[in-house]
Amino acid sequence: MKLLQGDAFDDLIRSSRREAFHLELQDDYESPDGDEPYRNWVAGGPADDFAWFQDWLNLVRDFTARGAVMRRARVVTVPMTDYQRWMLEITVNNVAAGEDVRYLARHLADSRRLSTDDWWLLDDETVIFTTFETSGRFAGAAVTHDPRIIAHCQEVRDYVWSAAVPYADYAALQTQ
Fold it and tell me: Is residue 144 classed as helix, strand or coil in its secondary structure?
């Protein structure tokens, strides 16, 4: 496996030709750019301008504008953590940029059909395992082209995607 950090991670996603799929399994993440807006949200502060998020949203817009598909599935614990509730609120930006996002409540998932790590599957050819420090902060990514790992991730993706609820439907359920 090859370890990626910094811009090399985004560049690999950007280089996908057809599809980038992301599986998220953690209930909390840390982000140097998102930590302050998150803390502000928890404290009941004013709406964020999402300037810190624009590089990612631009990547999504560029990616989907050329006809590629970007999908993200989040497996979340219910009740959701504050972090996941914040993510649910700001994910409207991902969707507006062209990302297709779905949610699966962890208690409804067959844990035997999930993986234990977050990862990206690019063009059904490359898997990028995202690695995190114990605090939840992104540490880098390990890349593989191993066909057995790719096949496993395809199975997990297909299972999770078919079981997950589209973002708008899931968000509507959370406000009821």
Answer: strand
Tens digit of pLDDT for each residue in 6-27? 788 889 999 999 999 999 998 8
Q: pTM here?
A: 0.92
Residue 64 and residue 101 in contact, taking contact as beta carbons nearer than 8 Å = no
Within 10 A of 102 (CB to CB), how many other CB atoms are there?
19
Cα–Cα nearest to 130, from 28, 22, 33, 57 = 22
Polymer length of the chain:
176
pLDDT for the residue 47 = 63
User: Which amino acid makes up residue 77?
Assistant: T
Mean pLDDT of 150-161: 98
Buried b / exposed e over 18-34, threshold 16 CB at 10 Å, is eebbbbbbbbebeeeeb
Q: Are 3 and 142 in contact (CB under 8 A)?
A: yes
CA 104 from centroid of its chain's CA atoms? 12
Distances from the Cα of 17 to the Cαs of 33, 43, 126, 163, in angstroms? 28, 41, 12, 26
What is the phi/psi pair of residue 134, to 5°? Answer: -60, -25
